[in-house]
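Fold this sequence, please.
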Amino acid sequence: MEKKWGHDPEASEWLPLDITGEALANEEMDRIRTQLAPLSAYDGGMLWDSETATLTIQMTTEDALQQARLLLLVTSPTWLRVLFIQVQYSADELSELATRLLEHQTSWIGVSALSGGVDHRANRLILILDRNHPDAPTIIQAVTNLNDPRINLDVYS
């Protein structure tokens, strides 16, 4: 086969594009996710802070935190700087709540005006509403009536 312009069509190796400079950290976080999979029922989400190069592991129980510490500091150590924090709610619990409320809002409010999602840093579901929506008072009351501490309503104008 003829080579053109110095390109070898037989070459199969590609260099990964690392725009952020965090490719190795991302690979390590993927490894950590795999290692922590048995604790997924207690997983409150992982947070990466690129400014401090710190990974925060959030778990819902002290026992799960201890298991994560043992795994990542002793059994299968990571080179990342890691913090361990206990949170109230699991990431799965908040995601399921988000799905239930956001995808079915016409059934429990009567209109579809909310947006939002899970804020792992706050360990809450954030619902967002435009104060100028014609049904805003009704929607605010419907969310208030849920009386759910996992939910924060953010009303903007």
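Strands lie at 43-49, 54-59, 81-86, 115-119, 124-130, 151-156. The helical segments are 23-35, 62-75, 91-103, 105-108, 136-146.
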